[in-house]
Amino acid sequence: MINKFWVLQGTVILLFQPAEEAGNGAKRMIGDGALEDVEAIFAVHVSHEHPTAIIGSRPGPLLAGCGFFRAVISGRKGLAGDPHNSVDPILAASAAVISLQGIVSRESNPLDSQVVSVTSFNGGNNLNMIPDTVVIGGTFRAFSNASFYNLLQRIQEVVVEQASVFRCSTTVDFFEKDSTIYPPTVNDDHMYEHVKKVATDLLGPTNFRVVPPMMGAEDFSFYTEIVPAAFYYIGVRNETLGSIHTGHSPYFMIDEDVLPIGAAVHASIAERYLNERG
Ligand SMILES: *[C@@H]1O[C@H](CO)[C@@H](O)[C@H](O)[C@H]1NC(C)=O
Ligand SMILES: *[C@@H]1O[C@H](CO)[C@@H](O)[C@H](O)[C@H]1NC(C)=O
Fold it and tell me: Does the keyword Manganese apply (predicted)?
């Protein structure tokens, strides 16, 4: 009699990682050795956009690289009625905001999606005074490392040089030391195919969807830079139950029927990876 059983060669490591939104979690896990001797990595994320238990992913870039910037534009305070005796950072910052919108619209390939959004503009609190400084800030997104770092460089140049047109000086901070820069999340073609195959075998082809890339970011991206990776979604949307809100909404909830399905898919991805890698 022959006993038939799978011989699993290898070890499955489960990563329980804190501080995803703070931007430091994955980087710190890597620094602490979580990926040592790891040859592939998989992550699943709930999605309110897809019905319960639909699996979605795509090969290549899935989520954008994300950075933040804050620029301090400095002029010289003065009475608003005597503008010639001051250096006006409000006008300089306003020009910088307008010029920043020319980077994506005029310099980026329209087929290579990118975003620059100014989300904050602060300066002055006296209606009769031109202030010393204005602080503007925002975020930028791109799907390739080259496009991302090109945006970073151009934001720096455009703000500094546009403010200098109006005689202001500028410092721009990209918070690089705080690790708030997330690289793009890029799925490895083979790992994506593996997820697709396992999900399709378990749930049927109609329960797998190729999803479009999204401008959001994930710190799983740090892992994708180091080992072949696949990130996929599992739907939790059920209108009857009301699980229709994003993960960032106070109304967020999931259709709990997804739990055994998600656990089975994720476990099978690991098990079959070990069995089939040859
Ligand atoms: C991304 O580009 C920056 C700037 O060119 C470079 O320093 C960095 O090593 C690149 N990262 C990757 C993962 O290619
Ligand atoms: C939504 O949840 C209800 C209650 O559990 C269930 O009967 C229904 O089949 C679910 N719908 C979908 C699309 O999963």
Answer: yes
| Residue closest by Cα to atom 14 of ligand 1 | 145
Residue nearest to atom 10 of ligand 2 (CA): 238
118 vs 138: CA distance, rounded Å: 4
The residue-averaged pLDDT of 13-21 equals 87
CATH number at residue 82: 3.30.70.360
CA of 145 to the centre of ligand 1 (A): 6
Q: Is residue 9 part of a domain?
A: no
Atom of ligand 2 nearest to the CA of 257: 5
My answer on whether 174 and 189 are in the same domain is no
Ligand nearest to the CA of 152: 1
**For atom 7 of ligand 1, which residue has the closest CA?**
149
Place of tokens 């820069």: 181
Predicted confidence band at 21 (pLDDT cuts at 50, 70, 90)? confident
> Given a cut of 60, is residue 3 above it in pLDDT?
no
C-alpha–C-alpha distance, residues 265 and 13, integer Å = 16
- pLDDT at position 23 is 67
3-state helix, strand, coil in the chain (%, to 5): 35, 30, 40
